[in-house]
Amino acid sequence: MMGKLKERIQAFVNNRWLVFVAAIWIQSCAGIGYVFGSLSPVIKRSLNYNQRQLSKLGVAKDLGDSVGFLAGSLSEILPLWGALLVGALQNLIGYGWVWLIVTGRAPVLPLWAMCILIFVGNNGETYFNTAALVSCVQNFPKSRGPVVGILKGFAGLSGAILTQIYTMINFPDQAALIFMVAVGPAMVVVALMFIIRPVGGHRQVRPSDGFSFTFIYSVCLLLAAYLMGVMLLEDLVDVSHTLIIIFTVILFLLLVAPVVIPVKLSFSDEPKDLAVEEVLLPKPEQQEAGKSEQDEVIFSEVEDEKPKEVDLLPATERHKRIAQLQAKLCQAAAEGAVRVKRRRGPHRGEDFTLMQALIKADLWLIFFSLLLASGSGLTVIDNLGQMSQSLGYDNTHIFVSMISIWNFLGRVGGGYFSEIIVRVTHLLRCNC
């Protein structure tokens, strides 16, 4: 009995859905740049900055949020928990020092030094994003769209989540929000950093994935609707502090709800062929030493050639279909009917080195799209505090929360619909 329990606990710890849920929790407090609209008024007032000086801090914040080259490079050298630890230290030092200056506990620094502190503090977010996305994309290579959309969506929603937690704590001064931004994400990341990791080559779509993603999407929609309702209620009605605490506790329960998935998958009695995670194809280093390069190319192309519906078949039937496809490819290559070409670098969806990515048009298309399209949204977020105050609103938190919620829905929806488009396009191509 104890041996079986120990085995299931180990399966729970190594479950890829547990990694995904932990990544969601990290992303829920990682989007600290979206809270800048609530931080900027107190910084402006405490340090006697004008709007131009505050805009320079906003630019430093945006650069810190965008320059993720160092985070990506370190993630190739360090284990992911090491990259997360570096990000947590940057977040703590950068925003922690800003808090000391704003509250008068440290001497005021020149504007350029304040820009560096904001850059360093917000650059920690890139480490959180990199570690969460790298681990989950490797664990869910067949569901990249939903995974990336959900994780980036929770990063956008973190502004509303942090604002609600700040409202519950009810600090006497607004500068305490800077302290919470400095300490809160660092604590969460340090607590979860050893869970965030690739746990194996899961190449196929599991039968339980459909239900699991549906449950996650349901939690996402419920969470967004709940936060919107709570935010409007707290703004329109004078809500007691006890009720605010209850609202925040319910928020935590919604955030914890996705952990039901790895618990169910690890502790429920499932058929063995469905419960055991397996690799679709053997890794190159596990293949026989006598295989020729041509054979390796053939086997590596099976993943690209096989229809997607094969992944949904039972294990025995799936292996049978894959073996048939491998045999056809080998026979066609041997008879000269198919000319097997040497693969020049990875294909789309596979891992790229930095130099391999830099010569791809896809990278530069994404780069310039983000460069040209994301500036307007960042401008609004950076100046949201001053915009709301100029319209006569003292509480800027409601606008920060509103942008976070709609940002969240847009990102999650983008991941969901992108996966549908990819599947429909693949089916149309196969039918042609």
Span between N and C termini?
54 Å
Shape estimate: globular
Question: If helices are DSSP runs of H or I spanning 4 or more residues, what is the number of helices?
Answer: 20
Radius of gyration from the alpha-carbon trace, in angstroms: 24 Å
Estimated helix fraction: over 70%
Per DSSP E runs of 2 or more residues, the count of β-strands stands at 0
H/E series, N to C?
HHHHHHHHHHHHHHHHHHHH
For the record, what CATH class applies? Mainly Alpha
Which structural category do the helix and sheet elements fall into? mainly alpha
Number of domains: 1
What CATH architecture would you give? Answer: Up-down Bundle
- Write down the oligomeric state: single chain
Give unreliable regions as ranges: 271-300
Q: Beta-sheet strand percentage?
A: under 5%
Write the CATH fold name.
Growth Hormone, Chain: A
User: Averaging pLDDT over every residue, what do you get?
Assistant: 77
| CATH homologous superfamily heading | MFS general substrate transporter like domains
What is the makeup of the main sheet?
Answer: none
Defining traits:
432 residues, mainly alpha, Growth Hormone, Chain: A, 20 helices, 73% helix, globular
What does this protein look like?
Keywords: Membrane, Transmembrane, Transmembrane helix. InterPro entries: MFS_trans_sf (IPR036259), Nodulin-like (IPR010658). The chain is mainly α and 432 residues long. The protein has one domain: Up-down Bundle (Growth Hormone, Chain: A), CATH 1.20.1250. The protein contains 20 helices and no strands. Helix 1 runs antiparallel to helix 12, helix 8 runs antiparallel to helix 20 and helix 14 crosses helix 15. The longest helix is centred in the last third of the chain and has 35 residues. It starts with a helix and ends with a helix.
